[in-house]
Specification:
It is built from 4 helices and 7 strands. It is an alpha+beta fold and about 170 residues long. The chain binds zinc ion (ZN) (2 copies). Pfam families: YceD.
Protein backbone atom coordinates (compact mmCIF):
# COMPACT_ATOMS: atom_id res chain seq x y z
CA UNK A 1 0.00 0.00 0.00
CA UNK A 2 1.45 3.34 -1.05
CA UNK A 3 0.64 6.58 0.70
CA UNK A 4 1.47 9.70 -1.23
CA UNK A 5 3.08 12.18 1.17
CA UNK A 6 4.90 14.72 -0.98
CA UNK A 7 1.93 17.05 -1.42
CA UNK A 8 1.23 16.97 2.29
CA UNK A 9 4.88 17.67 3.16
CA UNK A 10 5.08 20.73 0.92
CA UNK A 11 1.73 22.07 2.14
CA UNK A 12 0.88 24.03 5.28
CA UNK A 13 -1.31 21.24 6.59
CA UNK A 14 -0.18 19.75 9.88
CA UNK A 15 -1.84 16.39 9.57
CA UNK A 16 -3.80 14.16 7.31
CA UNK A 17 -5.78 11.02 7.71
CA UNK A 18 -5.78 7.89 5.58
CA UNK A 19 -8.51 5.25 5.66
CA UNK A 20 -8.00 2.48 3.23
CA UNK A 21 -8.90 -1.09 2.63
CA UNK A 22 -5.77 -2.89 1.71
CA UNK A 23 -5.28 -6.25 0.05
CA UNK A 24 -2.26 -8.40 0.87
CA UNK A 25 -1.15 -10.31 -2.21
CA UNK A 26 1.79 -12.16 -0.67
CA UNK A 27 0.55 -15.76 -1.06
CA UNK A 28 3.25 -17.25 1.18
CA UNK A 29 2.43 -14.86 3.96
CA UNK A 30 -1.31 -15.51 3.62
CA UNK A 31 -0.78 -19.28 3.68
CA UNK A 32 1.53 -19.12 6.69
CA UNK A 33 -0.75 -16.92 8.76
CA UNK A 34 -4.21 -18.12 7.55
CA UNK A 35 -4.94 -14.48 7.07
CA UNK A 36 -7.89 -13.01 5.20
CA UNK A 37 -6.22 -10.89 2.51
CA UNK A 38 -8.50 -7.90 3.15
CA UNK A 39 -7.03 -5.56 5.73
CA UNK A 40 -8.50 -2.33 7.04
CA UNK A 41 -5.96 0.38 7.56
CA UNK A 42 -6.40 3.81 9.09
CA UNK A 43 -3.58 6.16 9.81
CA UNK A 44 -2.73 9.70 10.78
CA UNK A 45 0.32 11.43 9.47
CA UNK A 46 1.40 14.57 11.22
CA UNK A 47 4.24 17.03 11.39
CA UNK A 48 5.88 17.34 14.79
CA UNK A 49 8.73 19.82 14.99
CA UNK A 50 11.30 18.49 12.54
CA UNK A 51 9.83 15.06 12.03
CA UNK A 52 6.87 13.47 10.37
CA UNK A 53 5.10 10.73 12.28
CA UNK A 54 2.66 8.08 11.24
CA UNK A 55 0.33 6.33 13.64
CA UNK A 56 -1.47 3.44 12.06
CA UNK A 57 -4.20 1.03 13.05
CA UNK A 58 -4.56 -2.30 11.28
CA UNK A 59 -7.63 -4.49 11.51
CA UNK A 60 -7.29 -8.01 10.16
CA UNK A 61 -9.03 -11.37 10.36
CA UNK A 62 -7.49 -14.81 10.29
CA UNK A 63 -8.76 -18.38 10.50
CA UNK A 64 -8.07 -19.48 14.04
CA UNK A 65 -8.87 -22.48 16.21
CA UNK A 66 -10.43 -21.94 19.62
CA UNK A 67 -7.99 -22.95 22.37
CA UNK A 68 -10.84 -24.27 24.50
CA UNK A 69 -13.40 -25.97 22.22
CA UNK A 70 -11.05 -26.55 19.23
CA UNK A 71 -13.61 -25.22 16.72
CA UNK A 72 -12.50 -23.09 13.76
CA UNK A 73 -13.48 -19.47 13.93
CA UNK A 74 -12.60 -16.11 12.36
CA UNK A 75 -10.46 -14.13 14.73
CA UNK A 76 -10.41 -10.36 14.20
CA UNK A 77 -7.53 -8.41 15.68
CA UNK A 78 -6.81 -4.69 15.88
CA UNK A 79 -3.22 -3.58 16.28
CA UNK A 80 -1.53 -0.19 16.31
CA UNK A 81 1.93 1.01 15.40
CA UNK A 82 3.97 4.15 15.10
CA UNK A 83 6.60 5.01 12.54
CA UNK A 84 8.70 7.95 11.48
CA UNK A 85 8.62 9.11 7.87
CA UNK A 86 12.09 10.05 6.66
CA UNK A 87 13.71 11.04 3.40
CA UNK A 88 16.60 8.70 4.07
CA UNK A 89 17.34 6.07 6.70
CA UNK A 90 19.12 7.41 9.75
CA UNK A 91 22.21 5.54 10.91
CA UNK A 92 21.30 5.91 14.56
CA UNK A 93 21.64 2.38 15.87
CA UNK A 94 20.39 3.29 19.32
CA UNK A 95 17.01 4.10 17.92
CA UNK A 96 14.39 1.38 17.75
CA UNK A 97 11.85 3.46 15.92
CA UNK A 98 10.39 2.18 12.69
CA UNK A 99 11.46 4.27 9.73
CA UNK A 100 9.58 4.58 6.48
CA UNK A 101 11.61 6.05 3.66
CA UNK A 102 9.93 8.29 1.10
CA UNK A 103 10.43 7.00 -2.44
CA UNK A 104 8.99 8.91 -5.40
CA UNK A 105 6.87 11.00 -3.04
CA UNK A 106 5.31 7.95 -1.36
CA UNK A 107 5.86 5.62 1.54
CA UNK A 108 5.19 1.94 1.08
CA UNK A 109 3.46 0.22 4.00
CA UNK A 110 3.44 -3.37 2.70
CA UNK A 111 6.31 -4.65 4.82
CA UNK A 112 5.42 -2.85 8.03
CA UNK A 113 1.82 -4.01 7.82
CA UNK A 114 2.89 -7.63 7.38
CA UNK A 115 5.37 -7.32 10.23
CA UNK A 116 2.79 -5.79 12.57
CA UNK A 117 0.27 -8.50 11.75
CA UNK A 118 2.85 -11.18 12.36
CA UNK A 119 3.90 -9.70 15.70
CA UNK A 120 0.38 -9.11 16.96
CA UNK A 121 -1.17 -12.47 16.11
CA UNK A 122 -2.36 -14.02 19.36
CA UNK A 123 -1.01 -17.48 20.17
CA UNK A 124 -4.17 -18.66 21.88
CA UNK A 125 -7.65 -17.27 21.48
CA UNK A 126 -11.16 -18.26 22.40
CA UNK A 127 -14.03 -18.32 19.91
CA UNK A 128 -15.94 -16.29 22.48
CA UNK A 129 -15.15 -15.06 25.95
CA UNK A 130 -17.45 -17.54 27.65
CA UNK A 131 -16.66 -20.55 25.48
CA UNK A 132 -17.65 -23.62 27.47
CA UNK A 133 -15.05 -25.86 25.81
CA UNK A 134 -15.31 -29.58 25.37
CA UNK A 135 -16.18 -32.14 27.99
CA UNK A 136 -12.94 -33.90 29.03
CA UNK A 137 -14.88 -37.12 29.56
CA UNK A 138 -17.04 -37.53 26.47
CA UNK A 139 -15.57 -34.89 24.12
CA UNK A 140 -18.85 -33.12 23.41
CA UNK A 141 -18.63 -29.43 22.44
CA UNK A 142 -20.43 -27.92 25.42
CA UNK A 143 -21.32 -24.76 23.46
CA UNK A 144 -23.54 -26.88 21.22
CA UNK A 145 -24.94 -29.48 23.57
CA UNK A 146 -24.96 -30.54 27.17
CA UNK A 147 -23.70 -33.90 28.25
CA UNK A 148 -24.55 -36.08 31.20
CA UNK A 149 -21.01 -36.31 32.55
CA UNK A 150 -20.46 -34.98 36.06
CA UNK A 151 -16.96 -33.73 35.47
CA UNK A 152 -17.59 -31.14 32.79
CA UNK A 153 -16.11 -28.10 34.47
CA UNK A 154 -13.61 -27.27 31.74
CA UNK A 155 -13.53 -23.58 32.51
CA UNK A 156 -9.90 -22.90 33.58
CA UNK A 157 -11.18 -20.77 36.43
CA UNK A 158 -12.71 -23.88 37.91
CA UNK A 159 -9.49 -25.79 37.38
CA UNK A 160 -7.61 -23.14 39.32
CA UNK A 161 -10.15 -23.44 42.07
CA UNK A 162 -9.72 -27.19 42.13
CA UNK A 163 -5.94 -26.79 42.35
CA UNK A 164 -6.35 -24.42 45.26
CA UNK A 165 -8.62 -26.80 47.11
CA UNK A 166 -6.16 -29.65 46.63
CA UNK A 167 -3.41 -28.04 48.74
ZN1 LIG B 1 -14.51 -22.15 21.75
ZN1 LIG C 1 -19.38 -35.26 28.78
Amino acid sequence: MLIRVNKFLSSDALSFNVNENFVIDDEDFLAKTHLDKNIEFSGDIFKVEDSVLLTGTIKYTFADVCARCLEDFDNTVVTKFEAVIVSKLSEDEESDEIQLVITDGCVNLDEIIKQMIYLSMPMKSLCKQDCKGICPTCGVNLNLEECKCENNLTDPRFNKLKDLLKD
